[in-house]
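go over this:
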Amino acid sequence: LVAGSLAVSCSALKIPSGKIATPISTVGSAVHRQTLHNYMNVQYYGDFTIGGQEIQGIFDTGSFELLVRSTRCSHCVHPTTPYDRNHSKTYGENGTLTKHVFGSGPCVSMKGYEEVNVGPLKSKGQSFWEIIDHKIQVLDTAKFAAIVGIGPNFAYGNQDTTLLMNFGVKEFSICLQRASGADGVLTWGQEVPTDYKEKNYARARVIGKHHWVTRMHNVSFGKSPLTDNFANVPCTGGGCAAIIDSGTSLIAAPAQALQQLSTQLEPIMEDCSNMHLLPTLHFNIDGTDFTLPPEAYVMRVTAETIEEQDSIWEQLFFKPKVKKVNMCMPAFMQMDMHSQHGPIWILGMPFFRFYHTTFNRETKTMHFARAAPDCSAHPFHSSDEALIALNAGAPKGPMDIDVRKIVPPAFSSQIDDSTDNNVDL
């Protein structure tokens, strides 16, 4: 396999003014900034080419393989153009079949090799999987035809080099703009010098072999949860495992933890009229305290209808007994999985609207900056005055969400739970 290079100079990049408050690094490697198009605030997808064909994909830090919806699946619904090996001059046959199991259902895929390009980045002979059959409800209406895994390491039991490895990318960053309908940005390469990140960003160690996972403690609504009711605070003691996952639409957590949080949260009015009274969500990531305001964890369901057998609706923990639309509720999904590092949480898209996140697979670290509403990155430990100025004019209402378009966690597609009922992260 031939590793791609970041073959674009910083001077050639057209950076929108006001998008990044900190300087773009010109040392080491150049960067490529990719737009993540926003669909219904729950799907952020980018353009790439595979076998010379332009495909839209979710760039997913929660997985590590490349899966594409394919014309091999003749009975599949194709809301966007699928990949067609017959139109490719660079396709390489393999034929291995496997079954991937995602949060919303299974799919059967066939392995092959292709040339994959993202802007100036190129990978020749990249291993990938063509979806030939699936029962993933969201794929039937999705704006994306691929899941582009950008996890930090090899897949389970697989030594095929990943897209990140073949691109030669050691570091990348993701942020989602806060306004409803606004796009996100994925930056391939080092945005700022290392010493700047170490001084101005919060840092977390990656403790997983396959995932961008770190330790999380003391999740609570309120500043001093341990002095109030220790029993109702998730992730105390040994803590939990938190996967920072750009491909999951909401926040996912074990049912027991969500039940604990429900005792701390007053009911949210269906019309969101008490948003201004709701508390801030507090949690600690690898020794650093983080917060998310109500506009991060409250959603307004906007689907015209909700089907009786809607698998995503059933995963929402705070859903009402009667299915309704145009109503507000906490944006949490139930996911009961355990790992060698404790119960698993997924910090999905709501997290990226407030924290500009940098991933480094070489140092096995993640760095977090405060994200302004327009995704410009600011020092994590900003003063109260600076934070007020940073968030001036930011949207204060709930995020409008069509539950039928929600993307559940994809990281479970290749999990290894063969020992002690624990997921090997």
User: Anything to note?
Assistant: Residues 306 and 324 are 8 Å apart (CA to CA). Residues 1-28, 412-419 have pLDDT under 50 and may be disordered.
